[in-house]
Each structure stands twice: as C-alpha cells, then as structure tokens.
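Hi L.,

You mentioned the student needs an example of a multi-chain input paired with its predicted structure. This one should do, with 833 residues in total across all chains.
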Amino acid sequence: MDASLIKSGTAPIVARAQALFDDLSFAAAREWKAAQPGRKVIGYMPLYVPRELIHAANMLPLGILGGGDQLEVIHGDAYYQSYICRIPRSTVELGVTGRLDFVDGMLFPSICDVIRNLSGMWKMLFPQVYVRYFDVPQTYRDDIGGNYYVNELAELRHDLGELRGQPITDEELRRSIALYNENRRLVRELYAFRAERPWLVPAAEVYLVLRAGLVLPVEEHSTMLLAYLAAAKVEDRPRRDNCRVVLTGAFCEQPPLNLIKSLELSGCYVVDDDLLLVTRWLTGDVSTEGEPLRSLATAFLHHSESTAAKYEPDEKEKGQHLVRAVARSAAEGVIFAAPSFCDPALLDRPMLQHVLKKAGIPFIAFKYAENSGQMQPIREQAGTFADSIKLWSGT
Amino acid sequence: MTATIVTPKPGPAKEVAKDASMVKQKDMMASHYDRLTSAPETGEKVAATFVPGNLNELIMCFGLVNNLPEVNAIQNGLRRTSGAFVLEAEKIGHSEDVCTYVKSDIGMMAKGNLAPNGKKFPDPDVLLLSYTGCFTFMKWFELLREQYKCETIMLHTPYMGDGKITPNMIEYMVKQLKDEVIPKLERISGVKFDIDRLREYLKKSAKAEDDLVWVLQSAKQKPSPIDAYFGGIYYIGPIFGAYRGTDDAIEYYKFLREEVADRMAQGQGPVTPDGDMGKEKYRLVVEGPPNYTNFRQFWKMFYDEGAVVVASSYTKVGGVYDFGFRHDPDKPLETLAEYCLGVYTNRSLPMRIDMLSNYIKEYEADGLLINSIKSCNSFSAGQLLIMREVEKRTGKPAAFVESDLVDPRYFSAANIKNRLESYFQMIEQKRAGARSAA
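Structure written out for the whole complex:
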C-alpha cells in the first residue's frame, strides 16, 4: 500500500467517490471508453450480473441505479403510472436524455416484473443497443438450475464476444474472476471492519466507496477500497452512543444518500445492509480452476446472498440470512427500508418480520423513494427506534 | 386513519341475462368448488397452483384437486368480499402497495378461508409454484407456505426476454418436471406417474383448445357474436381453471362453439347482463385484466355505448392458443414447458406490442383500450409505451383507464366513464376525419 494514500486520509477518497456518485453524465466511464478505440461499456441494473464476463471482454461493466435525488424526471414519468416505483422512470430519463448514449449494451437482471418489462422497453427505445434480460435459475440443483445457468452464461459470453469482435477465452475469464474475487474480498473486509468499528467507517462513506465500484474498472476500485480501508483504520473519529442496526430492503432502487446519513445522525450505526448487493452477491471466492462458467454457476447456486428476488426453497431457512446478519454484525435491530411499490421487498417484509419477531430482534419499517427529500420523519422514527433499543433492550 | 369500504346495497333484483354456456360455466365452477371443499371427506389431496402455467393435466395424473388462489380472489372480487379481505391483510402487516390478489387471499384465510359455496377451503397438500410471467407468484406461495407449512414445489419458467423459446429453456423445464416436480408429486399423492395418462389428458386439452380458439376468433365477424373480454372471462374459466384436459371441457367448448355459431348465423352480437347488445358501434382490443369488484358496472360502460371487445390480452393469460400452440400428447413434458413459456405475461414487451397491433388489424378494431391495474406490475409496467407504439403502428387511437383487480378503493366509476366517453368521441372523430379525407 502506498503510504501517501494512507497519509492523506479517507477524505480525498470519499470526495472522489462522491464526485462519481454525483455525476449523472458518467464522465469517468465515458473517459474510460474514449481512452482506447474499440472499448465498450455494458450497463446493468440491480440485482446481480456476472461482471466478470463483461470485464473478460475488455468492456466496462457500468451499474445503472436510477437517477437518485438530483435528477429531474420529466420524460420518464410519461412512461410509467404513478403506482410504479421510481427507478425505472429515472433510468428511462437517463436514457432518453442521452446520458447513456455511450452505453453499448444493457443487462436487465431477473429481479421483478418492472425491471423485466423495462428490458423490452429498452429494446424498443434504444434499438441500436445490445439488450439482454438476464435470467437466473430459481432452482438450485447443479444438474438442473446449474446447467441452465451455464448455458445462459454461455449465451451472454457469446454475445459479448460478438460485440467486441472476438470470443472471450477461458483464460480471460479466469483472470477477471480472480480480479473480482479480490474485489469482493476487500468489500467483505470493509463490511467486517464496519461491523467491528462502525464509527470509523460511516455508512454513507461505505456506500459511496462501494458505489464507485459500479462506475470504475474493478482494478481501480480494488485500489480505492484498499486505500480507504487503510486510511480509515488509522483515522481518529469520535465514537457515538449509537445503536447498531442492519438495513434491509434497499437492494434495488437506492435510498437517497441523505437517508443513509440521517440514520446515523439519528443514532443508528448501520453495521450491515443489502445495498449494492452486486458487489458481494457471491459470498466466497469463485474457483479459478476448471471450467469458468461452471465455477460462476456453482458460486451463484451455492454461495450467493439471500434476498427477496431469490426463491428460498427451504421454509426453515426463510429470513435466517437476516438473523445471521444481525448475529454476525452484533446488531441490535433491523430497519426495513423499502422503496415504495417495490413488490419483492414489500411482499417479503411480513415473512422476514415474523422471523425477527420469533428471534426477539426489534425492527422498524418505512418506505422511501430515490428522490425522497423530507428526512425528518425518518430521523424521528429511527431516533425513537435507537432510543427504545438503548433504553429497553435486555430488560 | 382507517379506511372504510362501503359496499353499496344491492338494488332491486333484476334478472341477469346469460347465455346457456354462461350458466353451464357457472355450474362447472360451482361443481369444482364443491369437489374442492369436500376433499377432507373424500380424501382427495389438494394442489394449489396458478392460472398462468397451470399444469392441470399433470395434476390430474396424480389424482390431485386443483385450487387456484387467483380464481378465489376473483370470486371474492365479484362477490364484493375482497375489499374487506384486502384491508384485513393490510391490518396484519401487508403493504398497501402490493398485489391485491395476494392480500385478498391472505385476508380470506384470516377470516375463515371460506369458498364461494360457504364451506371451508381445505389446506393444500402441496403448493405447486408453477412460476410463470409474474414475480409475485413466488412471494405469494412463500407467504402461503408460511401459513400452511406444506411442501412447495417450484417449477421455474424462464422469461421470453428475447422473444423466443430456446432449447435451453425447454431442457431446463423438462429436467425440472422429470427430476423435481413429478417425483415430488408422486411422493405427496402416493400415485405413480403414468405418462400415457398424461398423453390422454393432453389430447383432450388440444381438442378443447381448438374450440376455444374458434370461439375467440369468431369476434372477427361483424358484428362480433361475443365480447372477447367481459364475455371472454366466462369462456376461459374452465380451460384456465380445473377443467383443461377433461371431457367436461371438451363438452363445454363444443357447446359454446355451437352457441356462438348460432349467434353468428343469426347476425347477433354478444349477450350482456342486460340482454342482447344493441348495434355494434365500436370494436375494441383491450389490454390488461378487468376490475372484478365492479365487473358488471364496468362492462355496462361499454355495451351501453355499443362497444364490444373483439380481442383481449387477458384471455391469453392462462395460455396463448391463437397462434397455433396446442398441447401435444406426442411430447408430453416438452409441451407443458412450451405452454408455460408461452403464456401472455411471460412474453416480452415487444411481443405483446406485436400481438396487440396484429389483433387490431385482424379483428378490424377501432382502437386499443388499456385497463391498467394498480397492483399488477407484470401487466402494467410498460403499458404506456405499449399504448404509444400500438397507436403508431396501427394508426388507431388508444386510451388508458386505471383500476384494480379486487380492491374496490381503486375503482372510480366516474373517471373511467368519462375517459371511455371521450375515447368513443375520439374514435368518432377519427372516423369522420377518414370519411372526409376519402
């Protein structure tokens, strides 16, 4: 680690991440593309796509997470009824206003009906762009879901190869897998460190640093993570008398950054969350030996996160990932924060709450939109929750 | 604040006009509910499953009785009990934003779980999560599994994102059927799978499907002898529900076909709850499910104006047969896969646009009407683009109304009526424009 990175502290790293976050023209990705002729950029939406495949084709995977609270949605609203969440309308806004005109392909993962249908809309609206609905198995046997997934990955690999004019080799893929393994290890390390000393790595900073990974090449992002971790570990920040919470339900449409900040300001250290799951969807290293598509499939089937968009075949396991997250991060409660009209998160919520109730874990719930501006009610709710935990837990 | 749903008191009883086929259909539905609610006495085992991706032929191979929660929610909508059930579900923690079929079902369970015949629904022995065209299905059965603690079998149908069925999709589904679904159904039912029995049922399905398609396509005639949306909902009941693959279905669709043929021969339009429809003035294609809590009121807004629906996407939600697909006994598992893959909501948005545009042309419709359902993202997300694109391709006007499946809070009669009236005026203007240009 370059000592100068540590010396300059977390501030410049966070500032860089903030600038990337604020930039709705995606200048960094545009610059990356322009730096060498023939480079291509592939956008993807939540929840998960195997970014290794895109990287192996020497392309830049670019996470598209809607327009946040700084984008005025004018055109996008004309595509959606009022009872549909905000992320598709701001994503359409990004598209029709030309902010994504440098993007050569878009992947729409299997997460919900809205994103699914957006894949078809994108085909209609941007016929020059490579568009793929990225389906994943909801059955987890290697010889059933695994074979299906390997073939889906092979199709994507073939298409990306065609797009660059040269097939993706196994060697390229293994190299990319290794780089993403390293990136995920660093993300996990950051999460573990935050669970241990949350006052040193505020949730909003962790979010920004992670979010930068959706715009930057993985190599550069890993360097950023390393630098941030190293700098954060030696920084002196005051420890507050906050309670420790797990934030859940925010795996697709993103909460405003102010919301994340508000939670900590109101007395809750976020010690785990399901934000930006693509950065740690696979919970262990993907094998760099053997057939790489099979390795990615095995990791997806057997070593991936649990979330509402994924079927849980075992009733006893339903919601246990949350109980485990609470235990792992020594959390004292759970905050359910779901985007308005988010089918997966909101349909899942009662089941998860039953599990938490049984486990004696306190929780609160609210909804948000990516452009929610009024934080006072959330601050009050989270503050009261924090107080109740401080005052009444364990009594 | 607590919302209160006021159910209007029924007015003086007025005889509702029905075709003989509608009466027959109603009897079939009633008979199925009787069979279902008698299961604890008869010892029959029950499989809950969904309309899109309904594997009725396979279910019958194991002697299981099919219970369709969506159909139960529809029944509760039509009987105006769903509003209270939805509120009950919201009271126990379900979000106001999510599918009202689910909330009606959960609320009904909380309030005694009574079938339309007043008897209690039996607990399912298995939840066959045939997961096609709608993400909510997955969550719905996870919610039911939590209540019933019974086995859940997942059959995952990939989405036709690229507008085609690939060999990988078929292989995946057949493998699930062979190695997961069938062995589990054998174990739960205690009945060994007999592929020839399945073939026999599939043969029967194809026969009934032929007649259903004939009936739906009869709307190409002018005047249309049927209403392919409001009336169509009656017609699809047996084949989308518990009767596909049975002799009863063959008999029903033969009977229906004869009835419709008779109406065609006499140049008659559809039968409405108020009797024969008058002169056919507008021919429409409708996209999206209907509202069930005010079904007749909604329908009346059409037939009072002489509007008949000649084709609809909703009547394809439990199977798309009018492009030639039939259940094929020669490839029994592959055909079940193909059926699931092909249901309307599993088709990509461009496919849906093609389908609706073609309907407008083939059925010589005056335009497209979209009934956008608040709590059904599978249908609703993207409908505004569908509307614009269909208008562009066909040159016919389109209109957009909003309601909900079974939540009466979202049926605003005055708004919908206003929109429809404006829409009919728009069609008139378009016609006048065309006449003056000619």
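You could point out the following to them. Chain A touches chain B through 59 residues (CB under 8 Å). Chain A has a mean pLDDT of 96.

Best wishes,
N.
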